[in-house]
Amino acid sequence: MTEVTIVGAGATGCTLALLLARYGIASTVIERRSSSLNHPAAHVINARSQEIWRRASPKLAAQIAALAPPTEEISIIRWSTDLRGTPLGEIDLLSDSEQVDRVQGHSPFLISHIGQHLLMPILWDALEREPLVDFRRGWSFQDVIVDGSQVTLHASGPQVTDTEIVSRYVIGADGANSRVRDTLGVQMRGPFLANMGSVFFHAELFGETSRPLLTWIYSPSFCGVLIAHANNDYVLMSPYLSKCQDIAANSRSYWARVLPEVIGPDVAFEIHSTGTWTMTSQTAENFAVDHVILAGDAAHRFPHTGGFGLNSGVQDAHNLAWKLAAVLEGRAPATLLATYECERRPVVERFAAQSVANHFRLDEAMQGIGLSNRSLSGVTAAFNHRVLDLIPAPIMRHVTDGLMRLATNRTSALLGNDARARYRRATIRNRVPAQLEHFASTGMEFGYAYSGPLVRSETTPQPVDGAGVVHYRPTTWPGARLPHTWLADDGDIVSSHDVLDLRDFTLFTNSPRSWQEIIPADIPVTVVGLDAAVAPDPCTVLDLFEVGSDGAVLVRPDGHVAWRTTASALSGAAELIDVVTSFGITRATHRAAR
Predict the structure, then answer these.
(1) Is the four-CA dihedral 545, 478, 311, 10 of positive or negative sign?
(2) What DSSP string describes 161-207?
(3) Is 437 exposed, middle or buried (0-12, 13-18, 19+ CB in 10 A)?
(4) Cβ proximity of 479 and 455 under 8 Å
(5) Model-level pTM greater than 0.85?
(6) Residue 150 CA: distances (Å) to CA of 294, 332, 339
(7) For 387-441, how does the pLDDT look when each residue is reduced to its tens digit (9 = 90+)?
């Protein structure tokens, strides 16, 4: 019997399997695809995700980071009526040099632009190389039966019609259309926002001019967004109303016709793939039923506006891995896993709210002109009504195509050189800077915090700038991510995140000897001295950790602060012991050699 079966080898499932392997815990991963998806979905990779992958494997994190283009090549966000014309407005994410310097000090990594079609082969290769992962490609989930503390999963694979996989836990990480979730009868709650069609293609665009990362296009013939990928590949997306429209029903021929209108009739292109998806903001009613747990898109779906989807799934895996390990190794009761939903739900709901706000805030830049996301949401909901399926497809296509043309034709008000058109373009240019939260969300990337039984809360509220959107101030407020600083460790210079114990809580203090002497041997706490910090001014490190020269910060294996005190070891040890004991996690009697 395997310990954990993971359904789905997306970023969430791969991350969880690789993190569990660090603990010596075997897992079986089944994936319905035989090869990784070539059509890019996510492309924003947060620094926090890269920190988590480094916990799984420094080599893996380095491979992923190597895919990222230089920051200066992905800093421009543009609004345009024509890719070849003068932009309506743009944001340069590197224009605030002071903010750039601050962001670079928050982590060993930077937020990166890496297409999921490039990321997934690296994660799959890591699964294939890991001896503790049984990676089964081309296997489909059928159903799951829970019998006490044992879960039996039925799956079919190449030349195998029905196989039983018995494990202690099953993780449903099988995406937005999760079959595991459907089998459990768990409903998703939240609105549908739009139907989206996309094409992944290669073309030589922009010539010698700077290549924007994103270009929002508003023209009478087309409204959508162009996303630049590596090697002169691009994704172009646009909304639609009905599955009868060519963008959904005859997607390849649709894009072969539309691409020349958007990128220019004389530009050669090669279509790699096309696809459709539904933009929603939905969260599962429950993240777990007995020993079956949902993670990633199976538990929560966001609009693409913000780049939180893939990254939140990696965070789910991080939150789950150390808790599963503690339970499976007998260091904690099974009830520890109940804290997964308790901690993750408020975080993903906040991400969802920000994504939806970003989606509708785009209307403010183009107010009164072109296709409104808010009106699109309402019309999309109306056309999703089942009674409309009775209307013949040609009629439905004619009606929906006409409605989309009416909306996009309004952008003709931006064209020409008359006074009204110039005024409208200038108005949009002045509105564009207000869209910054959509593209620069460092405060949410690092500032999400947990609350619940595994965090000893304080009476003081979480710092506002630690929980902001654009700006982030590192803090050791309980529940927050441990601040990054550089430490000397056996002759190496490493991040504070690199010295976290996999199983024990880690206590950071400027007085390590006094705390080590007073903590009993059976309390699962490893002490790390801040006196090993590499900084020109030691006071800056003490300010960063916010507990003075004698206090201490207790950090969980997933890098989130559990408790802190400004008291000395003599005064604070009793509270530390009480806090750790209350968590119900004991010290391991033996450890797998990893």
Answers:
(1) positive
(2) EEEEEEEEEEEE---TT-HHHHHHTPPEES-EEEEEEEEEEEE--ST
(3) middle
(4) yes
(5) yes
(6) 17, 18, 20
(7) 777 788 888 889 998 989 988 999 999 999 999 999 999 999 999 999 998 888 8
